[in-house]
Design a protein that fits this description.
- With 259 residues, the protein is of the alpha/beta class.
- It has a single domain, classed as Rossmann fold, CATH 3.40.50.880.
- The protein has 12 helices and 11 strands.
- The strands form 2 sheets. A 9-stranded mixed beta sheet has the order 2-1-3-4-11-10-9-6-7, sandwiched between helices. Strands 5-8 form a two-stranded antiparallel sheet.
- The radius of gyration is 17 Å and the shape is globular.
């Protein structure tokens, strides 16, 4: 299976995380997918870094599916880096290619297809998104086959979808925001099914100053969370986080769907 991974980060945003030793987001996403299907072959593109690079329709059609990563960007900032990604997503949406978007990927698809994304007045949802609940459509949808009706997932975002994209169906929500939606060819989650304890802990550590300044956590609370993520106790976290197969169920279901 041949997949394209689109890096949602710009150079500045990724450099801040890279300084803290995080594995490159595309490599990390690739490894999570390989854990589901070892025969996957991946190619990366970086539309907010390689601003002048263009690709043909045949290039995109050569892939079985496209995965769009998260990002530290805020789509309403409307920089040239963001505009470049919106333009690309609009193009791919018209080609009706199979796309899976995590967090930023779903927000980007939303704005590219006449929806809207704004900063959430509730603040950041970071670390774990609790009690994500499937609605009737979610329970029936292929994305959530063999997924619990209520589950937790790793998350890191301050923005949320306020108007759904055209022709989309809402599948899941929690107290914070819309957490999943789909169209005929797009599956998206506001949370990160690809993240695990280790990677999420690294992100919390890299953004420690921001999280404390925004009063998401006290320093003591954050230190305890980061420590807990290093050796997660199954009695302290839900099975939907501890069990990798359940955690990545959306991705494994998508790979089966596009195959």
């Amino acid at each position: 299976m041949n997949l394209l991974i689109v890096n949602g980060y710009d150079k500045k945003g990724w450099n801040k995380l890279q300084k803290n030793g995080l594995q490159h987001i595309c490599d990390f996403y690739r490894d999570q997918l390989l854990g589901i299907n070892s025969k996957i072959i991946t190619t990366y593109i970086h539309p907010s870094i390689d601003l002048n690079k263009t690709y043909s329709e045949d290039f995109f059609r050569s892939f079985h599916g496209i995965v769009w990563t998260g990002s530290s960007l805020n789509i309403y900032d409307n920089t040239k880096e963001i505009k470049n990604q919106i333009t690309l997503m609009k193009k791919l949406s018209k080609l009706e290619l199979n796309i899976f978007g995590s967090c930023w990927g779903m927000q980007l698809y939303t704005v590219a297809n006449k929806g809207d994304v704004k900063k959430n007045s509730k603040g950041r949802e970071v670390g774990i998104a609790f009690n994500i609940t499937l609605n009737e459509q979610g329970i029936k949808h292929d994305m959530y086959k063999n997924k619990p009706i209520v589950f937790d997932a790793f998350a890191s975002h301050v923005d949320h979808i306020t108007t759904k994209p055209e022709k989309s169906t809402l599948l899941a929500e929690n107290h914070y925001s819309i957490q999943a939606l789909v169209t005929k060819k797009f599956w998206g989650t506001q949370y990160h099914p690809e993240f695990n304890f280790h990677y999420t802990g690294q992100i919390l550590k890299a953004r420690k100053k921001i999280l404390i300044n925004e009063k998401c956590f006290t320093k003591n609370q954050l230190d305890k969370i980061i420590h807990a993520y290093k050796k997660p106790n199954q009695d302290s976290f839900s099975k939907s986080l501890i069990n990798d197969k359940i955690r990545k169920r959306e991705l494994s279901n998508w790979l089966k769907y596009i195959k």
